[in-house]
Amino acid sequence: MHPDRINILKETSKFAIYLETDDNGEVWKKFRAENYNYDFRISDGMFARWGKTKETINDPEMSPFGPEILDLEITDICHGVDGKHCQYCYKSNTSNGKNMSFRTLKTVIEKINYNSQLTQVAFGLGSTASENPDLWAMCDYLHENHIIPNGTVAQLDDHHAKMIASKFGGCAVSYHGSFDVLADTVQKLTYWKTKMTANLLRSISIS
Ligand code: SF4
Predict the structure, then answer these.
(1) Is there a single domain that holds both residue 83 and residue 50?
(2) Of 12, 118, 127, 167, whose CA is between 20 and 30 Å from 71?
(3) For 42-55, how does the pLDDT look when each residue is reduced to its tens digit (9 = 90+)?
(4) Full residue range of the structural domain in which residue 135 is found
C-alpha cells in the first residue's frame, strides 16, 4: 500500500473506506472492517467481497454497513419501442408520467450511501434513456461520489448511445419483439464504446 495513492473517504473506529490507485493506474474503492471487506475496481466493476479472511467460508451474508448496489427507478415515462409500449410492461410505464428530479436523486444517494459504501446504481429508465432529462447530471453526481451508473434501455438513437458510452459502466438492452431494433441499439452502443477514447462502458448485455 502506497500512502500517497490513498484517498480516505470515511474512517471510524469500526471501518475504513478509501480509494487506492494501483501500479497500473487503476482506481479501486476498498472497504475494510474486521468481518466485512471488499475491493471494487471502478474502471470495469470487478468486485470481490470477503469476511475476516479471504477464505470463502468467512464470506459475509450481508453488508452491515449499508447497501453495495442500488436499483433506482428515475422515471415512469417510457417512449416505447417504435413508439409502442409493451403490454406486459412490469413497471406500467406510459408516455405520461413523472421523473425523479436531480435534487431527489441527491437526497436518496446521501441517505443510502451513508458510509460512502455504494459501488453501483442501476437506473430504471424508459426505452430510450431520453425520458428523464436529468439522467446525465445524475450520472455526473454519482461519478463525483465514486459510484458507477448502469441502466437498461430498449431503443437508442445515436446521441443517447454516445452519452451512455461516456457515462455508464454497463448497459443492458431489452428485447421487445424486434430483432432489428435490438441489433441496431447494440450496434450503436458498440460503435461508441470503441470509437471514444474516454468511454466508460465496459459491458453491453441483452436482456
Ligand atoms: S420498453 Fe421497458 S419500460 Fe418501456 S414499455 Fe417496454 S417494458 Fe415497459
Answers:
(1) no
(2) 12
(3) 988 899 999 999 88
(4) 69-206
